[in-house]
């Protein structure tokens, strides 16, 4: 099978996430994988730097032996025109790859080139799959574009041959919006890398945490994460021997969200209790998670967060770390209360209370961690999720009914 992934973020610069794991899983299973992306982190180096030329390379994000064929079409490097220019350059590039590489199926994550992707798929008789992993409209950088983004997302949902939904509630939403078919393809975990019991002695010494208890968040800093209300709630508590560890950064805005959070720490007077590590290599992430006594997913309830589940929740569970999360529909639909090592809360006050209780009850922490590790081993390894995606794509080529659902995932 020959698969084209279409995205609108930088494949190389973005931290590894769903699209990278699934693409490389298909390569590992013997399929040829191609990708088209857009460098959303572009910056001009001079006044004359007005054009980013097309590039083509073989890349791997996670497994060096599982390379994909990546094309980054050219675009105008001018605010307001860069994405508009990709309507032309991406259409040409997608058409070329579809014809020259004899693509069998398309998996898209992109709003920008949604229409040409669907139209070219129809024209050439190639099934198009839209992987619904986020509420896309809240992700657009300008509020005026939110409504058009909603329309384009609905176009994708209705025009795709199948919507691959990150969670069961995403699948229900897609069905309400007119999806022809849906299949549950959740996030997964690299359990060989993300394991409990790692020796964090050296890292604790490096960070000055030898005699401290640690609350950790590991992930990309965006305006949707809720760092500021998290810091404000943390500042209200008395934590004589507790540090808040924030691992990550915001690569799209060149660290803007991190700088805002650091400034707020200064204003709240908690700069000595909060540690910002910046971006960390993927091979060090398991150490930071293992270092924590309690891990958190601080995404507050919102239109953006309601339906999805942060990949980090699975990674915390894989490392057998007790996790505290807001009670979001998407997260609870995959990890029910009491079944997978996650404690759910309704407010920031409850979040802090749950953290304090867990810090004071190591037996409960151990039980939650064990349950979380067991659930990801049984249901949410990338190998299993990749196999489910392969089955869905192959069934589309055989014109058989797609029947992957969350019950099948959990069996």
Q: What is the first-to-last residue Cα distance?
A: 26 Å
Quaternary organisation: single chain
Average pLDDT rating: 89
- The amount of beta strand, in percent, is 15-25%
State the helix count: 15
Main sheet makeup: 8 strands, mixed
Please give the radius of gyration in angstroms.
Answer: 21 Å
Helix content: 40-55%
Shape estimate = globular
Strand order of the largest sheet: 4-5-2-1-7-8-9-10
SS-derived structural category: alpha/beta
Compute the number of strand runs.
16
Protein architecture, described:
The protein is an alpha/beta fold and 411 residues long. Helices cover 40% and strands 17% of the residues. The protein contains 15 helices and 16 strands. The chain has helices spanning 18-28, 82-100, 114-124, 146-159, 168-176, 201-207, 227-235, 256-268, 285-291, 311-318, 329-334, 348-360, 362-379, 382-397, 406-410, and strands spanning 2-6, 32-36, 51-52, 55-59, 68-72, 75-76, 105-108, 128-132, 162-165, 182-184, 213-218, 242-247, 274-278, 294-297, 323-326, 342-345. The strands form 3 sheets. Strands 4-5-2-1-7-8-9-10 form an 8-stranded mixed beta sheet, with helices on both faces. Strands 13-12-11-14-15-16 form a 6-stranded parallel beta sheet, with helices on both faces. A two-stranded antiparallel ribbon has the order 3-6. A hairpin with an 8-residue loop joins β4 (55-59) and β5. The protein is globular, with a radius of gyration of 21 Å.
